[in-house]
Amino acid sequence: MRQRIVRVALVMAMVLLVGLVPLCGQGKAIKGGPLEVGVLWEEGSPWYDLVKGIGDQMTKDYPGTQVTYTFNNTAARPAIETRMKAGNPLDVDFIFDGMDANTYSWIDQGYLLDLTSAMNQKRADGTTWKSDFNPLFLPSMTYKGKIYAAPQQVYTWLLHYNKKMFDDWGLTPPKTWDDMLKLCAAIKAKGVAPIAVTGQVNFYVGMWWDSLVQRYVGSEKAMEYLYGTKGMKLSDDPGFLKAAQAMMKLVDLGYLIDGWQGTDFTTAQVYFFQGKAAMMLMGSWLMTEMKDSIPDGFQLAVAPFPAVSGANGRQDAIFGRALSWSVPAKSKNPDLAVEFLRRFTSKSISQTASTQLGSMSPNMGVTPPTGITGADMVLKNAQKSEFIFYNWALATAKFGAMAAWYDPIVEMWTGKLTPQQALAKVDANMTSVRAQRKAGM
Amino acid sequence: MRLMSFRGGGKTRPLGDSGYAHSRLRLVVPFLLPAFIIYTAFSIVPLVLTVSSSFTNWQGAGMNRPFYGLRNYGLIFMDPQFLHALKNTLIFAVVGGVMVFPPSLFIGWALTQNIRFKAFYRYIAIAPLMMSVVVVALLWKFLYNPVFGPINSLLRLIGLRALALPWLGDTRTTLPAIALATAWQQSGMWILLISAGLQRIPPDIREAARVDGASEWRTFWNITMPLLWGVLRLLLILWIIVSLQVFAQVYVMVPHGGVAASAEVVTTLMYNRAFQSNQLGIATSMATFLLVAIFVLSLLTNWFTKRQVIEF
């Protein structure tokens, strides 16, 4: 009988303890239950395993928790967003960015949970969840003064290069556009294509265009052109033409891989890692995306996009975005989802991702990845420079704004249009987009 | 003989006319009902929803669909991307039609001749039809690869380096290249139906023409073609429907519409507007326009190709 009382007391104490642990941390108990988490990575990939590790721990910490993982990257977005609209969302999703005005409707129509109080809740050490993040990324998290997302990693556009090739040939990454042209000439003389690029995806060609436009005319003017209603023309600023002409030089001088027009992006990336091309302008996801295809001994290094001397834009600005995750208002288990998000965006997970997967972290105090030469400097510089949402957030803009902006530039690169004709075509396209926007308001 | 109705208890009695009709109805309805429900749920209802949504400003969020009148139709016709996609769709239909009909006619005719291994050739000709559209698209995407694709490798090997183009990367070749892949797959069906049509023509008609001194070519044009006309008309209308709705081949071979949208067709643009821009109102108006265009073109084709039916 006595033994039985002791056993019951022990069980009760454990139940109490399990219940109290979450209460101590967050102020209220979190109940276990089903949790459907969005994952941008395929099952079996290192990122997937990292996310699953968090889910496994949640299952242990909150009995009754069953975590499922649903692919929610580009190809799955239509289905995922349809689910959101139908009131059956993922519990943790990648759907909003405070720097992308095209995603504001999710909040305006009440689809996302306000995370402000959770973000500002003080911990025992006086810090908050919000204070974990570099203030540079606050705009990504915020809309109308409230926080709706937590950033988990940062992507930036970088000039990737083959370090071993550069070292062997005594080359250094270009600091200016003039350096870039000289460097390309030197690489071409060695029999290797200077630049790997795909013509199949307009926004990958567009990376060159956007970067040069930013350098030549500055982001404010570019955004005014793309989203403004003043009817501005590209000819109003000679910087646009200079950017197009600079870009055209890469083709005229034969600095792109053969068949770039018909090469899909994965193949273009493989060419780069196989040493058939020396450089590639690509997002910082390249390293992790191609991890399994990188040959042994390949040394990847990165540099910021070259500066253009005497041009109007901020020459240290970088394009990128913080991948910010949200909890839908109709989450089946909002407390559990917020707790998952808190762990997913924690400093410790971010450090693991940085060290093991080479990702750039939005958290304060996380050591930058060491596997990619130059990545630490780029991120360090980013903190004091201008951070522009990549593609000027055109990917989610309506009325085909992305095609209107990039397609004539791709046509220019194929030789079908001169720089002047390309700009005139962009103007015509954007005039139509503006008219449609106005009519379709 | 009279139909007997079977009742409980094993007794039977003869049926009158109304009883027969009633009994027939009781038999037919349960068989038709599942098909009718499925057809209504998956064809009629989506069709009605699509057409009705085209008159709304549905942004895809929730079921809020404010009435918008004909403004979406105005918007799509002021959109150069839609007009470009429409032009591409029509080019695809014409170029693909040229690629699918003459070879199918020739192969279909060849397969009705007395040749060895006819069954094997027939299998080879029809095999692409049994492959999934996605598999065919991926296969051709590989064939067209500008660097390691077999087509360009072969061209380089035989000294035709200048012809080794980036097939899916050149604004002039992307659409014809996709049309060729589509025609290759579709030709199986065309060959099958043309062969069947040719086999239906009694051999003595052609024999009589030959006896009268007509050459093979003349026999083909003046005897075979008119007798095959009904089949060719049907295939032409089928091609219009298939080609104007092309989606999967384009989406798989050039997921982003090709270089500078050189292969963007109405269906891929519609998909992008619906699921990337959340402009469901605009997308459904494109879908409705396409539906009407297919209907009208099919009717016109049917009308223009009408000939006197030759009984044989």
Topology (elements, then pairings):
The complex is a heterodimer of chains A (441) and B (312).
Chain A: H1 2-26, E1 34-39, H2 46-61, E2 66-71, H3 77-85, H4 105-108, H5 116-120, H6 138-141, E3 142-143, E4 146-147, E5 150-162, H7 163-168, H8 177-189, E6 193-195, H9 202-217, H10 219-227, H11 238-252, H12 265-273, E7 277-283, H13 286-289, E8 300-303, E9 318-325, H14 334-344, H15 347-357, H16 375-382, E10 387-389, H17 401-413, H18 419-439
Parallel strand pairs in A: 1-2, 6-7, 9-10
Antiparallel strand pairs in A: 3-4, 5-7, 5-8, 5-9
Helix pairs in contact in A: 9-10, 9-11, 9-17, 11-18, 17-18
Chain B: E1 4-6, E2 12-14, H1 17-53, H2 71-77, H3 80-110, H4 118-126, H5 133-143, H6 150-157, H7 174-200, H8 203-211, H9 216-244, H10 248-253, H11 266-275, H12 280-304
Antiparallel strand pairs in B: 1-2
Helix pairs in contact in B: 2-12, 3-7, 3-9, 5-7, 7-9, 8-9, 9-12, 11-12
Structure overview:
The complex is a heterodimer of chains A (441) and B (312). Chain A has helices at 2-26, 46-61, 77-85, 105-108, 116-120, 138-141, 163-168, 177-189, 202-217, 219-227, 238-252, 265-273, 286-289, 334-344, 347-357, 375-382, 401-413, 419-439, and strands at 34-39, 66-71, 142-143, 146-147, 150-162, 193-195, 277-283, 300-303, 318-325, 387-389. Chain A has two domains: 23-155 and 321-357, D-Maltodextrin-Binding Protein, domain 2, CATH 3.40.190.10; 156-320 and 387-439, 3-Layer(aba) Sandwich (D-Maltodextrin-Binding Protein, domain 2). Chain A is globular. Chain A is α/β, with parallel strands linked by helices and 441 residues long. In chain A, strands 5, 6, 7, 8, 9 and 10 form a six-stranded mixed sheet that branches. The N and C termini of chain A lie far apart (76 Å). With 312 residues, chain B is mainly α. Chain B has one domain: MetI-like fold. Chain B is built from twelve helices and two strands; from the N terminus they run ββαααααααααααα. Chain B has helices at 17-53, 71-77, 80-110, 118-126, 133-143, 150-157, 174-200, 203-211, 216-244, 248-253, 266-275, 280-304, and strands at residues 4-6, 12-14. Chain B has a two-stranded antiparallel sheet. In chain B, helix 3 (80-110) packs antiparallel against helix 9, helix 5 packs across helix 7 and helix 11 (266-275) packs antiparallel against helix 12. Chain B starts with a strand and ends in an 8-residue tail after the last helix. Classes of the chains: A alpha/beta (441), B mainly alpha (312). Chains A and B meet through helix 3, helix 17 and helix 18 of A and helix 2 and helix 11 of B.
